[in-house]
Amino acid sequence: ASLELGPYSHFMQKEIHEQPRAIADTIEGVIDAGTFSAELFGDDAADVLAGIEGVQILACGTSYYAGMTARYWIEAIAGLPCSVEIASEYRYRDVVANPKHLIITLSQSGETLDTMEALKYAKSLGQERTLSICNVPESAIPRASRLVCYTRAGAEIGVASTKAFTTQLVALFTLTATLAKLRGRLDEAREAEYLDALRHLPGSVQHALNLEPQITAWSEHFAPKEHALFLGRGVHYPIALEGALKLKEISYIHAEAYPAGELKHGPLALVTDAMPVVVIAPNDSLLEKVKSNMQEVRARGGELFVFTDEESQFGPSEGVHVIRAPRHVGVLSPVIHTIPVQLLAYHVALARGTDVDKPRNLAKSVTVE
Ligand code: G6P
Prior knowledge:
By secondary structure, the chain is α/β, with parallel strands linked by helices. It is 45% helix and 15% strand. The structure holds 6-O-phosphono-alpha-D-glucopyranose (G6P).
């Protein structure tokens, strides 16, 4: 291994393990400030964010899934309608613009052509309130945006994005809480609770990373398979999507994700013992519903691999494998549940002997159409 890799075999593995540090660095500003204030997003931010009536998020790939996750937060916590769209779709659509909506572009590289063009298109429609969440300072997309929030993941080399995704999530959560506060929807107790949740997050991510040996053991079940299904509900549905994307990108196993409630409208027809089913099932308000979705899978002979947390009171049984994160971390739970799906993809790819850091046909940053 090269000097840069240290004890790790691949950049992807190194970057997965850097997440506690990357997240701590990204939230340093808000933790030091001890409050969610508009200034975190630039001097101009209080003006730009005042009076917004909705949010439109634009992104590609993994960044798009960060946006999908944020939609649940923005609507529930900040009370703002939020749409999320793939940049290459938005840019070619006859969009009905609303100048009171905030346009958020998400891009690790800040150079993705479709995202850049979608931003230009939004601006051409009179959308002047623009905010970029980006990992590369002074790249094209932040330069074209009025407000900028830099994630501090550090250089990401593995083509499959990992630490950029979780740092985008914490930046989006910080933005959500800030919007809620500006709109008078965040009382002191709630603000303290969110700051505390952020403060504890790097430690909780480290606990999730410590599950690696158990996930390595699971990877042997997946390596010989050609298909996998990922299920989640609510704010964890985008994490299922991200898990499926990671697995297909680097292991070349065909993987798709469904909101678990939609199982009966199609994918249930595919379930056999040849297709492992991964379920993101933390102890949230949808857990009972997810459990009944899992029974539907089991009844058809599908093998279940469930990521849950301690509070779910959920144990393994015949055909049901369970890995439990130490505790439920509340509103930031999607960040924690990202870790095991990243590790699963990594170890399955290792077992299949693919080129983990440079998967075939894919590029780290797509600057052409
Ligand atoms: C490529 C990369 C992905 C990334 C996507 C968007 O497809 O392989 O990992 O999620 O581009 O990139 P961005 O830099 O805009 O986040």
